[in-house]
Design brief:
By secondary structure, this protein is mainly β. Among the domains are: 143 residues, Immunoglobulin-like, CATH 2.60.40; 100 residues, Immunoglobulin-like. Helices cover 4% and strands 47% of the residues. It has two helices and 50 strands. The strands form eleven sheets. Strands 37-6-7-8-46-45-49-50-43 form a nine-stranded mixed beta sheet, with no helix packed on it. A five-stranded antiparallel beta sheet has the order 1-2-3-39-38, with no helix packed on it. A hairpin with a 4-residue loop joins strand 34 and strand 35. The radius of gyration is 26 Å and the shape is globular. The N terminus is likely disordered.
Length: 619
């Protein structure tokens, strides 16, 4: 920790006060030309600010873009006086790829993080690179009441979570691990995020449009009564809202923020989805599946089914639709192009929820832990699809609840695999296609996950050969931006100077100091520890901070968790922490926007005594 503080102090001393412009950087190796550019969202590349990284790969001889590249990138703070060195860079990349717990990157633009919405009022962020059964929990974030639905935004990286019992919607910054904004909405229901337009939320009166940054209310649009579900056309111009009690679907002009009309559907519409391929919306209700043309804002067809549909979803590509009928142990598969049912597939013990990868449909059941797999490629034959399989997702059936509409399954980015919330095992199951059972599981810090989502942190291709990602710049200093290309094998480290945040004081002048840290506590007892953020030069309490996190480590490092500190009374910061087992715990703190890195503002320890009882550990 002291070494890292010295690295930070030396790096800050060598930096300019502001890094407004970073010229593009160019490198050629192994016949590949790489160009690196950064774009600051607010014109300044400083600690804690958001920027966009872009890497362009091209053939060095022909300048043809490499559109099939699979690059990875990391940020790593340099030691004092350390120059750029590709040999050292290669060693760093090797450690990052191997998941070395000692040498971690300061910012990681690879892979994904797993998010769980838990039965208690909390949200967990898990790094799956920590390994099965011993996952690295990046953050455990409190909610004001148990969550009901959520959506994940990629740019900026935020989780929007409904808190129905509290009458709120929370926007949580997934890089600072802090609540960014809160909206007070009576009985918030389901959410739909439209980048560039805002966040839609259903409520008791209809639907509300919120600003995606501040969560300020932009529009309120009344609709029919009852439980609501949302769907939008591929271009985002039309929003559909189901009204369960009224038996209607409200058609909303999402651009003008006005209700166009209410369409009678029949009894209890329960689900809705759209197909970009067919250009229609599909509504499941007691009357069957109604097809709506958004251009005419009118029903244009009906797919007859028995009453009792519970869920409806459209597979990737938009051709095939699936609707579950748990009461009759059937799944209706229909063709969106012809508007006709293809077949009714028997699935025992209450098929309920549907999810997809690019190649398979996953059907979760109410009365069994078994999950049914339906290969999508075999549906073209018109008969019963070949290759139907199943696997156990844990040891107990998934206990679905009407209070949670968020999905309990989601596909892993870039992989033929599925993540499944498993509250009975207090974990997330990881299933890779082709296997007879999950490959492993990720612990949820002793919580019971009821929904799962992913935050994709990897580079994505925009223009041919150009791969980019948003990044929250780490603590001020000089960094290696390490880039790895698989084919041809190429490793190179670019240089980036991150200036101190505006108003930040360099060299560890900010410290997080405890007000009532005990020397010993019983293992398993909940602690709410109070801290002040203090300027060590003036001894004044800093009141202008945000994004303060704590890392708790059980010596000698076999267990660690990261927690968001929340503001408390009298300018304090509060850490809600339960030591899971006996031992010596070390606390360190980070506030990147204020120039505070782990260990540079002080480390504290206490001892937990007694038998292991679970706490924030796996139990």
């Amino acid at each position: 920790m002291r070494l890292r503080a010295a690295v930070l102090a030396a790096a800050l001393a060598a930096l300019p006060a502001v890094a407004d412009e970073v010229p593009p950087q160019h490198f050629v190796g192994q016949g590949v030309a790489i160009d690196l550019t950064f774009t600051a969202q607010e014109g300044r590349l400083s600690a804690g600010s958001d920027a966009a990284l872009a890497l362009h790969f091209a053939d060095a001889a022909t300048a043809a873009p490499l559109a099939a590249a699979s690059p990875a990138a990391w940020f790593s703070l340099r030691r004092p006086g350390e120059a750029a060195d590709d040999a050292k860079c290669a060693r760093k990349v090797g450690a990052f790829v191997a998941g070395n717990p000692i040498e971690r990157p300061d910012a990681d633009l690879t892979g994904f993080a797993v998010l769980t919405l838990n039965r208690d009022p909390s949200l967990t962020v898990i790094d799956p690179q920590g390994g099965y059964g011993g996952s690295r929990v990046l953050a455990l974030l409190p909610l004001d009441s148990p969550g009901g639905d959520w959506v994940i935004g990629q740019d900026p990286q935020r989780a929007y979570v409904t808190e129905p019992a509290a009458g709120k919607i929370a926007a949580i910054d997934l890089q600072s691990w802090q609540r960014h904004a809160t909206a007070e909405i009576a009985a918030p229901g389901t959410l739909l995020l439209q980048p560039g337009r805002g966040l839609w939320s259903t409520d008791a009166a209809g639907v509300t449009l919120l600003d995606a940054d501040s969560l300020a209310i932009l529009a309120r649009i009344p609709t029919g009564s009852g439980t609501h579900r949302l769907a939008a056309t591929a271009d985002g111009k039309i929003l559909f809202v189901t009204n369960g009690d009224a038996g209607t679907v409200s058609v909303i002009d999402a651009v003008q923020r006005t209700r166009l009309r209410d369409l009678p559907i029949g009894l209890a519409p329960v689900a809705i989805a759209t197909s970009a391929l067919a250009g229609f919306a599909y509504v499941a209700s007691e009357a069957g599946i109604t097809i709506i043309d958004p251009a005419r804002t009118a029903p244009v067809g009906q797919i007859a089914t028995s009453p009792g549909l519970a869920a409806l979803a459209i597979a990737p590509g938009g051709r095939w639709g699936f609707a579950t009928d748990p009461g009759r142990d059937r799944v209706v598969i229909f063709d969106t192009v012809t508007g006709r049912a293809l077949l009714e597939l028997p699935v025992a013990k209450g098929p309920a929820e549907i999810a997809f990868t690019q190649t398979e449909a996953y059907i979760r059941r109410r009365g069994s832990e078994a999950v049914t797999l339906v290969p999508l490629a075999t549906l073209d034959g018109g008969g019963k699809p070949a290759g139907i399989a199943e696997f156990p997702a844990g040891e107990r059936p998934f206990p679905a609840t009407a209070a949670v509409s968020a999905a309990s399954m989601t596909s892993a980015p870039g992989e033929a695999s599925m993540l499944l919330a498993s509250p009975g095992e207090r974990a997330v199951q990881f299933y890779h296609e082709g296997m007879a059972a999950p490959a492993g599981s990720f612990e949820d810090a002793g919580r019971q996950p009821v929904a799962v989502a992913v935050l994709d942190r990897s580079l994505h291709q925009g223009a041919p050969g150009t791969y980019g990602a948003p990044v929250r710049l780490p603590t001020a200093g000089r960094y290696d931006v390490a880039v790895l290309l698989d084919a041809p094998r190429l490793v190179h480290c670019f240089t980036l100077d991150v200036a101190p945040a505006e108003g930040a004081v360099p060299g560890g002048a900010l410290a997080i100091e405890p007000l009532d840290l005990p020397r010993t506590v019983p293992a398993g007892d909940r602690l709410v520890l109070r801290f002040h953020a203090v300027d060590t030069g003036t001894r004044q309490i800093r009141k202008d901070l945000s994004g303060v996190t704590a890392q708790a480590v059980l010596a000698p490092g076999t267990w660690h968790r990261r927690y968001a500190l929340v503001p408390g009374p009298d300018d304090t910061w509060l850490l809600d922490f339960t030591p899971p087992e006996p031992g010596i715990y070390l606390l360190s703190f980070e506030a990147p926007a204020a120039g505070l890195s782990l260990g540079s503002g002080g480390n504290f320890s206490f001892e937990a005594t007694g038998p292991a009882v679970g706490g924030d550990h796996h139990s």
